[in-house]
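Here we describe the complex-level prediction in full. Unlike the single-chain runs in Section 2.1, the two entities below were treated as one system.
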Amino acid sequence: MELNAYSKEELLALEQDLAQRYADYQQAGLKLDITRGKPGAEQLALSDALDGILGGDYKADNGTDVRNYGGIDGIPEAKAFGAAMLGVKQEEILVGGNSSLTLMYQYVELCYLRGAKGAGSAWKDEGAAKFLCPVPGYDRHFTVCEDLGIEMITVPMTATGPDMDTVEALVKADPMIKGMWCVPKYSNPSGEVYSDDTVDRIAALGQIAGQHFRVMWDNAYTVHDLDEQPPVLSGLMDACRKHGTEDNVFITGSTSKITFAGGGVSFAGTSEDNLKHLKKWFSAMTIGPNKVNQLRHMRFLKDMDGLRAHMRKHAEIIAPKFDVVQQRLAALTGKGMGSWTNPRGGYFASFDALPGLAKEIVKLAADAGVKLTPAGATFPYGKDPEDKNIRIAPTFPGYDEVDQAMQVFVTCVELASVRQRISAL
Amino acid sequence: MELNAYSKEELLALEQDLAQRYADYQQAGLKLDITRGKPGAEQLALSDALDGILGGDYKADNGTDVRNYGGIDGIPEAKAFGAAMLGVKQEEILVGGNSSLTLMYQYVELCYLRGAKGAGSAWKDEGAAKFLCPVPGYDRHFTVCEDLGIEMITVPMTATGPDMDTVEALVKADPMIKGMWCVPKYSNPSGEVYSDDTVDRIAALGQIAGQHFRVMWDNAYTVHDLDEQPPVLSGLMDACRKHGTEDNVFITGSTSKITFAGGGVSFAGTSEDNLKHLKKWFSAMTIGPNKVNQLRHMRFLKDMDGLRAHMRKHAEIIAPKFDVVQQRLAALTGKGMGSWTNPRGGYFASFDALPGLAKEIVKLAADAGVKLTPAGATFPYGKDPEDKNIRIAPTFPGYDEVDQAMQVFVTCVELASVRQRISAL
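The structure predicted for the assembly as a whole is:
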């Protein structure tokens, strides 16, 4: 029954039931955590063979001794792998250390403070740079902007990606909008896959934006499918070639959620000219990334077929956890207490509570021993204007923990919703 | 016999002999390279057991699963190791990725652009920052300053370290001198070990320098001894505690020339408060360094005893190469054609030719198939004012190559010196 259909007396009775159920959870002394998008131990163990895989052979395909210094942009086989994974040419790839977030941070910093194209091209020389942020989105993207002092402007997400009419209007109107964050496949946290039309329109933004506009295309979940027949994200760089906007995109990915979250390999894909400027800066900062770890990964994952086979094993482990999230949320169906997404990949589900209740629900859950991502984290500056979005991250805990945490969560949603309704009557 | 003691006729005859010997080398089609301070393959192989050493146990001492995300400053056992290696407390250590150069770059950038102590403490807010650079020195330190736009002021090296009277006078006179580069043990390239008095005076600089002055103490060769009874560098941080200047130093080191040059672990040691500000910035940029590689290294090196035993194996491989450098240079003894150092550790020897001849000697050697570090590289902006210093890096090539390269080098020194003398007569 819809929340709105209850009488006050019914609501009060319902509140009592829910409060009792909630109190029972509180007494159970739970300690559950569905906070962060981290792989679980069983997933990590899928890649334990990374250790020992080199068998004394430290030579890359081109004869490079990966143990020694050198090679600012990675070994050739890792470049080929990254190019295939991100949908760019091998000449458009840089292979980095263990963190694609670092590559993103450094590239935004390069563009802002130093200039993507060298002296005279820095955003800061034109004024105060701004970024578009589809919301809900990824808190660490927002932190990059906040840390560098880049103003963030939110844009609503739709089922096909960011609302492109709004994006285009904003970008056309203000040349100081210098970039946009995107998680194009299984968007963090809401799980949308950008449609072909959205990808094409994003690729064309460079034609209407101010100079040195950059789409930060964080393709973190490009192969992180739960289903055997997953949705296909169309290639951003292919579209850019059509529009002549290869300079306007910076594509990233990593093996963090493929092999070891903290010990993987990161990739950046962008135009050769963009890479030239980035590598010039990197050359002042390092003698090169850890090539041993790159070779280790290439020996283990081999190629796209090897990668896909490996990702099937991840799906087998985490799909049941995603499924139980949906099964438990189903208890809210038809109750008018919120809506949620059912992503078929990535690391999150997203729940929109009734406006004004996200913080309250997160607090209720915490007080019953279930840690959730802080309400607001999916918005720039931590401020969800409607206080409704909650990110659910089911991969790290075990199946039973996710199940139990979601039961508590659903109770908290119901309790908060009923109480809100009562006080509104 | 001294060059100055020859008559013109004798010099002309000598020149003919040397030119003939040089022409023979040219005809031999040599291809030798004593350019960079890279370990040789035999050294790298000492650490091949790093691969496979984890044996399925990915838990750090404190129970952390090193495969997963997290830990901005490293695992506890790596911190303890780094603290012992750099002579600081465990709370004063940050363990990074594979490059201590990156830590140095980032720290100088932090101090210059953002402020070592947060908002309001950036060097740039006070004006144009300057750095003291003992010369000859390390080209990649100079590149950091050049890249960030920090002016470099040279200070002469002495047998006991930088000329401290000059350093103190400069630092006292100009509060915009915000830092100094130091390679305190087996200085790159000349091999000096800073004396106890020098270390103490450097630790005291914070008392007379402008605010937020930082000594960049690149202790790259702290355990890289050739002899069984090596010189002992006194502890900078110990001296800083005496002077209350813990904030004024940033100490770095790595396992790059201990295990794998491109795949090691880096360490930074500085005051806890400095670290707090650095970690805050890093938190916007990364979810943490590669902890798997840190654990790998700790299982392999274990502790300071393990480290020292490992370094003895390096010494056995490279000491003969350093010795043959000295044996070949000995042919120049008493000839008045230059002077050289005989370091008992580190990665380099340094040769001072007669003024005005370094470029010529490097060119002669190149034309005979022997690549040397470009003349000038050991000075800021690549400009050796006397054009005399040449860095010799004997570790990467095999023993015979070093031997042959040094014979060619000596001939080039003689030929250039004799020709200069002739044209001066």
